[in-house]
Design a protein that fits this description.
Layout lengths: L21 E4 L7 H7 L8 E4 L6 H8 L19 E4 L5 H13 L3 E5 L14 H10 L7 E4 L5 H12 L5 E4 L12 E7 L6 H8 L10 E5 L8 H8 L3 H12 L23 H16 L8 H16 L1
Parallel strand pairs: 1-2, 3-8, 4-6, 4-7, 5-6, 7-8
Helix pairs in contact: 2-8
């Protein structure tokens, strides 16, 4: 086999590669640190790696700053697409979103309602997908065709629900984050995300990408569980549709985590810069590359020479 295409199953211990030369990781933010590391252990030499994601996690963004990863940014929408209009809505006026969803359905469009949990737990404020499906089907959208989709359903049940929605036999899909990636229904124009504070910025941005997948205007409404002050994360999502910018915000808020450990968030305090300052750090990296490649005698710069030698000693010890 020259090309293997698969899910996380490719990195099981029983799977081996004779001469792995290239790894393409799609939706890179969905893989854990240990999973990504395991994938790169096959073979005698490190393979080339191409990671793709609309929202780099803070750890990945940090690796680009340290020169571990090169970055290519595609910041243009596909032809004919419009930026998705995003609004943070108080749960007290959720009915206004329902009215808009119903108006879109009346035009022949479709919509999603995303809930943070499958069933009601200890936190009564969180909307569960099962309860919302029953409630909306009996009240607000009793005149519409509703579908239910969540991760605890059997595979054939999930496929059936998704097929009905894609074939326009359902108007509204009440679901969990199982629709976060890989779902393409161009006719869906509205998404309501309940309990939005429970989701990370990357996840919210990915969910938002399920609507507005044709020339029609797409809308995303994020509704927190309570009517308290809106978090900075949700405000940033409301103001920007740029996944890379949101990743930088996420980096600033969550911290980059460990460079060689497994933590994907947490603060790493630097005295000379903030890791969210990507332009400054990019210039610093390019300057370092120029300095090394230019053949300059580092002995001319005592402090720089000392730091370089210290780094070499630490590298040998590790």
């Amino acid at each position: 086999v020259q090309v293997a295409v698969g899910t996380h199953a490719l990195i099981q211990k029983d799977n081996t590669f004779a001469k792995l030369g290239l790894v393409v990781i799609d939706e890179q933010h969905r893989f854990g640190v240990a999973q990504r590391t395991e994938l790169l252990k096959h073979g005698a030499r490190m393979p080339h790696v191409l990671s793709m994601t609309a929202t780099p996690i803070p750890r990945s963004l940090q690796l680009t700053l340290y020169g571990e990863l090169e970055v290519s940014i595609l910041d243009q929408l596909p032809k004919g697409r419009q930026p998705i209009i995003t609004k943070v809505v108080s749960p007290l006026v959720r009915y206004t979103v329902y009215e808009h969803i119903d108006a879109e359905i009346a035009k022949g469009r479709q919509a999603y309602v995303v809930c943070p949990v499958v069933a009601q737990g200890a936190n009564a404020e969180l909307k569960s997908v099962k309860d919302e499906y029953d409630r909306l089907m009996k009240s607000v959208f009793k005149h519409r065709r509703l579908g239910l989709l969540h991760g605890q359903m059997k595979a054939d049940e999930k496929d059936h629900a998704m097929r009905l929605f894609k074939q326009k036999e359902l108007d509204l899909l009440i679901c969990t984050t199982v629709v976060e990636v890989g779902v393409d229904v161009p006719n869906a124009t509205v998404m309501l995300i309940e309990g939005a504070e429970r989701f990370g910025l990357a996840q919210l941005h990915q969910l938002r990408g399920r609507v507005g997948r044709n020339s029609e205007q797409g809308y995303c409404y994020v509704v927190p569980s309570t009517a308290q002050a809106v978090s900075q994360r949700l405000r940033e999502l409301e103001q920007s549709t740029d996944g890379f910018h949101l990743s930088e915000v996420d980096l600033a808020l969550r911290g980059p985590g460990e460079i060689y450990g497994r933590a994907q968030h947490g603060q790493l305090n630097l005295s000379f810069a903030n890791l969210a300052d990507t332009k400054l750090l990019k210039n610093a990296r390019e300057s370092a590359i120029w300095l090394i490649s230019s053949g300059v005698d580092l002995l001319q710069y005592k402090r720089l020479h000392e730091q370089t030698e210290r780094y070499r000693r630490l590298t040998k010890l590790n």
